[in-house]
Amino acid sequence: MKPPRIVLVEDSAGDARLVEEALEDAGVEVRLDRARDGDAALAMLAEDAADARRLPDLVLLDLNLPGTSGLDVLRQVRADPRLQSVPVIVLSTSAAEGDVASAYEFGANSYVVKPVGFDDFLAAVRTIEAFWLALARRPQAD
Amino acid sequence: MKTPEEEIARLERRLKRERAARAEAERIAEETLREAYLQRQDLALLERVTRTANQAQHAWGAVLEVLPALCEYTGWPAARARVKVHEVPTAFSEWHLDPRVAREQVEAIIDRHGPTIVAGAVLRKVTWAPQGPSDEEPGGIALALPIVRGDQVGGVIQIVAPVAAPPTPRVLDVLAQVGLQLGRAVERERTQDELRHAHAEQAELLREFGRSNQELEAFAYIASHDLQEPLRSITGFVELLRRRYEGKLDERADEYISFVVDSAARMKALIEDLLRYSRVGRAELERQSVDLSELLEATRGTVAGRLAETGGVLEVANLPTVEADPGQLGQLFDNLVGNALKFRSDAAPHVRVSAERDGDAWCVTVEDNGIGIPPAQAEAVFELFGRLHPRDEVPGTGIGLAICQKIVERHGGTITVVPGTPGGSRFVLTLPDVRQEQSQ
After folding, report:
1. A88-92 and A58-62 as β-strands: parallel, antiparallel, unpaired?
2. CB count, 10 Å around CB of A72?
3. In this structure, are residues B365 and B427 in contact, taking their beta carbons and an 8 Å threshold?
4. d(CA B125, CA B112)
5. Could you tell me the strand order of the sheet in which B415-419 lies?
């Protein structure tokens, strides 16, 4: 079975690498495609949307992006009916109630506060794997 | 026996005496009447001046209003004035002129005698010139009436006549009183101006303080968020380094890694505290009834770990219900009690929280038996990043008390610290009482 495909929208090389290392440590086999900013992410997803079989299994979206903001990307992704089935998990440095509420309002499926320690990254990744990726591995109802 | 001639002479002498007596009586009566009339004139003028001085908004207006009355009183046909409320006197007003007299004439007189009367007025005395022997001077006669407030000259009124008798001592007296009354109007305007100015300055200072405070909070917010990313890299990759190279590095490398890990942890604490600090100012303040006894029990839970490991005691006396934001108040007491346990002396820490009424507010005291704060540092200790001890002696970011002060001030209260008795510290803060009108 093909490994699930994750689109990681992250501008920080350090943070992106930490996600990769955490996935590796957690023993999660995935295909990770990285977009460095909002515009690149939207372009990538637009291409994917054209073909239902190319849709990613999960999008990890950093809110703190240069240029087009993370919330804007979220809004546009949710506005595209072809991307309806793709879960989007928002990653953010802010734990403030207002920011969490905004993310959910814009259509995020889940909200993860970016951890500082690596062990916390590992825990976050394990949770994501256990829930979201497991969903992806379920056979699709036709 | 008197002859008829002698009788007539006697009667004539008596008549003459009586005529003289009656003339004298008439003279006295006339003088008394005149005196009474003058007194009435004096009183009328003073009453008029006092009323004008008390009612006027501005000294200038009061003085101008009084000029015609002064001309009427003295019988001199021209008067003008200038006023000095602050440092710089105004220019002289236009002449108030009786229509019989010409301006050029008046100006010629003032040119001639002006310098003399000005010199006297500076000494706060009613001065007139010329003080020569003759009653009528072709050069006219001029008088300066200084407006006196305390030992300062608040202006001067000049009164001029082409032809007049020199002023009597009584008139000079009355005019001096006029000067004093008008001086009070000047004094009042001056005081009002100074008060207004002080208020404006204060308002501006408050605005500026608010602005710079806002800037500080915004900065703290942005800085703490932007600082998290590089911190994540440092922490994350050092930990990865440790894991992936466990046993493969020498002892020195392990020590280096320890230092980095510790620094990163401290930086994390700093950033979190900075965020907390900036959030206190930015968040909406919820005003609820908060039972302080309940709140302190929650604090007990927060510091339970440290209480246990230090063998410490948290004593909570009877505490009132106050009007406050529960979240922020929780932070406040967590901080204060946490500090009391952190800055402990060798004895087992003992922290006591009590309260008493202070007018229509509550005065809450948190006292401990710890290492205390020297009175000289009592203010500095609340400053952002204000630390009193080296980093390796006592851990802490130096932001905690700044947050406490911000929270208390946002609730309209104050917080201070004094040495405890016998040792340790006493933090005293004020919080508003529960509002009497409870809605719902």
Report:
1. parallel
2. 16
3. yes
4. 20
5. B313-316, B350-358, B361-368, B425-432, B415-419
Cα-based distances in Å from B193 to B51, B186, B199: 21, 11, 10
**3-class DSSP assignment, residue B368:** strand
Inter-helix orientation angle A38-49/A70-79, to 10°: 20
**Separation between Cα atoms, residue B316 and residue B298, nearest integer Å:** 12
Q: Which of B224, B429, B426 is nearest to B339 (CA)?
A: B426
To the nearest 10 degrees (0 to 180), the angle between helices B4-55 and B169-244 is 10
Rounded to a whole number, what is the distance in Å from the CA of B249 to chain A's nearest CA?
Answer: 20
Q: Answer yes or no: are the C-beta atoms of A49 and A77 closer than 8 Å.
A: no
Task: Write the pLDDT tens digit of every residue in B207-240.
Answer: 888 888 778 778 877 777 788 888 888 988 988 8
Start-to-end CA distance of chain A, whole Å, equals 18
Specify whether the CB–CB gap between A19 and A83 falls below 8 A.
no
Burial class (CB in 10 A: 0-12, 13-18, 19+), B332: buried
Distances (CA, A) of B371 to A25, B344, B418: 47, 6, 12
Report the residue count for chain B. Answer: 440
State the smallest CA–CA distance between residue B238 and chain A in angstroms. 9
Distance CA(B366)–CA(B355), nearest Å, equals: 9
Yes or no, beta carbons of B225 and A114 under 8 Å apart: no
The nearest alpha carbon in chain A to B233 belongs to: A14
> Does A22 score more than 80 pLDDT?
yes
Q: What is the spatial distance between Cα B146 and Cα B153, in angstroms, rounded to a whole number?
A: 7
Q: Indicate if the pLDDT at residue B440 is higher than 50.
A: no
Q: Which residues contact B409 (CB under 8 A, 6 or more apart)?
A: B415
Question: Looking at this predicted complex, what is its ipTM?
Answer: 0.79
Cβ-Cβ pairs closer than 8 A, A with B, add up to 49
């990726």: which residue's tokens? A133
Render pLDDT for A82-111 as a digit per residue (tens, 0 to 9).
Answer: 998 899 999 988 877 788 899 999 999 999
Among B240, B268, B279, the residue with its CB nearest the CB of A116 is B268
CA separation, residue B174 to residues A45, B42, B224, B261 (Å): 98, 7, 75, 90
Q: How far is CA B421 from CA B169, B335, B354, B413, B424, in A?
A: 73, 21, 15, 24, 7
Average pLDDT over residues B167-173: 92
Q: Are strands B288-291 and B321-324 parallel, antiparallel or unpaired?
A: antiparallel
Structural tokens at position B200: 């404006």
Chain B residues with CB-CB distance to A14 below 8 A: 229-230, 232-233, 236-237
- Burial tier of A93 (Cβ tally within 10 Å: 0-12, 13-18, 19+): buried
Burial level of B128, CB count in 10 A (0-12/13-18/19+)?
buried
Residue B440 in tokens: 């719902």
Instruction: Write the DSSP string, B211-240.
Output: HHHHHHHHHHHHHHHHHHHHHHHHHHHHHH
Give me the residue label for tokens 């994917």: A48
pTM above 0.90, yes or no: no
Chain A nearest-CA distance from B225, in A, is 7
Q: Are B56 and B65 in contact (CB under 8 A)?
A: yes
